[in-house]
Amino acid sequence: MVNFSCVDGFDALDPNGNITIKWDVLVDNDGSSQDVRVTILNNQLYRHIDHPGWKLSWTWPDDGVIWHMTGAETMEQGNCYKFKGSQIPHCCKKKPVIIDLLPGVPYNKQVANCCKGGVLTSLTQEPDKNIAAFQMNIGSFKGTTPKMPENFTIGVRGYTCGDPFKVPPSKFTEDQGRRTTQALSTWNVTCSYSQFRASSSPKCCVSLSAFYNSTIVPCQKCSCACQGQSKCIKPGELPSVLQLQPNEEPEPQVGCTSHMCPIRIHWHVKQSYKEYWRVKITITNFNFVKNYTQWNLVVQHPNLRSIAQLFSFNYKPLYPYGQFTNDTGLFYGVQYYNDMLQQAGKNGNVQSEMLLHKDSDMFTFREGWGFPRKVVFNGEECVIPTPDDYPRLPNTANLPPQSNFFIFIFSMLLLPTIF
Fold first, then answer.
1. 411 with 216: CB under 8 angstroms?
2. Residues 166, 133 share a domain
3. What DSSP designation does 91 have?
4. 222 and 166 share one domain
5. Is residue 122 a contact partner of residue 33, using CB atoms and an 8 Å limit?
6. What residues are paired with 182 via a beta bridge?
7. pTM (two decimals)
8. What is the mean pLDDT of residues 69-77?
């Protein structure tokens, strides 16, 4: 049985993480309409919104309409038959669905922090790109100011939004910070993530190996699904051609494996030196219909506080338990080099090695200490083998001194062939 730590909107590795929707009333036009700025802030340490992006929605409690919109657009205009003449609202739907504009739209359609195709980076990975915003003029069929909307959704699996609540008005700076203005009123909506709500099954798994043991521990069988339960792509087959709607993400089409996960992370304890030890991390994409752009990997291990050198990946420490406990880190790709994990195939993997200092007060290879406690890929917790299956240290008392060398060579020969 798989136990998730991210159920019910609480993530132990990011206890304060959420997405906040901020509704700022900027101008009240004599009670007939309002100018509103809507801002979406991703306050999560490592979980990001990938393509096809967010789709913000709400329900008008009365007969609200959107007259004009800049920086975003609604997916449908709806039936505006009540309005005659040349002035027709941008959207008349009771429940509008708003999407971000794509990069490169004309400047007269843009506002600050718009036009990213709905993609929001995490707070740690790229903190300057975790905000989306748009402005709109809203009114009603009766020519009065509509009431505050309700039933907000962000349009991404796993997220649940609460009710709007009033907060102190937002303040804005102008003239290079010399002048401060503020909204007439501000409402916040908080959206939290639950991996259990996002999917009934995991999306990634972990396999393990070490230089001191010839055993390679694969991902647990049926980690994400079983071959009999869902269709998989056999060697030589092509994935199905999908007819997708705009802003729709395709369902995974996974290569046939025993674990049936779209993503596998392999952790290999590669070598031991006098004062350091080396680990190799390989991330493999088994999904034939998805490139993972701006992917990230969160690893929890007590020795991460002593990383001496990292190759091919970027790294930032996370502090979910305060500044005094540095056992969790965020790994992600180098821009324009390996920040995209390509679809299944020859190039569908990224890998890196890291050198860690041996802390005398904790370091050991015994009892599987060298393996991670928790692994999270793109915000999804991965299935890890049980401790009983970890590669064990050989009984060196009964082995000649050269045996460890042969075990190391044998494991290096096997590693490229694991599935």
1. yes
2. yes
3. B
4. no
5. no
6. 171
7. 0.87
8. 96
